[in-house]
Amino acid sequence: MADIEQGNQTSITEFILLGFEELVDLQIFLFLLFLVIYIVTVAGNILIVVLIVADQHLHTPMYLFLGNLSCLETCYTSTILPRMLASFLTGDRTISFSGCIAQFYFFGFLVTVECYLLSAMSYDRYLAICKPLNYAAIMNNAICSQLAAGSWLAGFLVSIIIIFLMSQLTFCGPSIIDHFFCDFTPIIKLSCSDTHVMELVTSMLTFITTLPPFLLTLATYVYIISTILRIPSTNGKQKAFSTCSSHLIVVTVFYGAIMIVYMLSASGMDLMMTVLYSVVPPTMNPVIYSLRNKEIKAALRRLNVWTLFTKNNMFVFLP
Ligand SMILES: *[C@@H]1O[C@H](CO)[C@@H](O)[C@H](O)[C@H]1NC(C)=O
């Protein structure tokens, strides 16, 4: 690539993340709002991980995947929100070049892992609902661990390639990113190298790696829903649906948010809309599972810190 020949001319050592600059009067309000979102997200997801690790009843594939997902969501919000909170508080909007690349790396890594984990979870629900007799034979501990490990590995490999390509780019100014975190498109726009090849490779890579898990998730839900509709009794229908409804909501929120943003980005990205897909889904996950899932609620009651949380008004976890 021609970019490499230009050598290490990077004259920019830091970027400026504009973020919500136009909302200058609201900085304190935004700080408090996102601080609450951050605390609720991290506390909720860590609580789910603790419940799943500590409670023997929850050592089944569905909950082990959920534990992985909650770990992931904790890391995910932590790549975006603390940096954002700091800039609301201090007004300092600069981020170093390597900090920016690291932020994008973790963001891309975790989003890819999430795609794969969600599809592993929907495959698990597909087996439980459509192939109940073979479930235990197919979804054993080894397969479950392999699917989880495979998800993390896939995310790691995809994002390492993209980061490698990105590290070949030269940035010679301007350095202003009109966004609240270092996302792919805003960084690429600032490069003075020819980014066509890079953009093409990245689009293809994203397409090849995220389309299969998405299609798998979609296909399993088509099967699951048509199987549930064929169950004769209303009671049986409800019972089958309740085992996959939490996951279906989480999947819908995740892909729904990405699709809304994707469609809007064609007509110019709205910052508030980006918040939708980068900040909201991780928050929803524990709320959905704690509100809807009987076994999680039962595990919460078995765990003694339950009383501690109700005393502290963690209202989201109330049954
Ligand atoms: C993630 O999944 C693996 C494999 O199933 C499991 O052993 C591990 O406990 C899970 N992690 C969490 C935090 O649930």
UniProtKB/TrEMBL annotation:
Keywords: Cell membrane, G-protein coupled receptor, Membrane, Olfaction, Receptor, Sensory transduction, Transducer, Transmembrane, Transmembrane helix. The lineage of its organism: Eukaryota, Metazoa, Chordata, Craniata, Vertebrata. Belongs to the G-protein coupled receptor 1 family. One of its GO terms (molecular function) is olfactory receptor activity. Pfam families: 7tm_4. The chain crosses the membrane at residues 28-54, 61-81, 101-121, 142-166, 204-225, 246-265. Residues 44-289 form the G-protein coupled receptors family 1 profile domain. InterPro entries: GPCR_Rhodpsn, GPCR_Rhodpsn_7TM, Olfact_rcpt, Olfactory_GPCR. One of its GO terms (cellular component) is plasma membrane. SUPFAM superfamilies: Family A G protein-coupled receptor-like. It is a multi-pass membrane protein. This is Olfactory receptor. It is found in: Cell membrane.
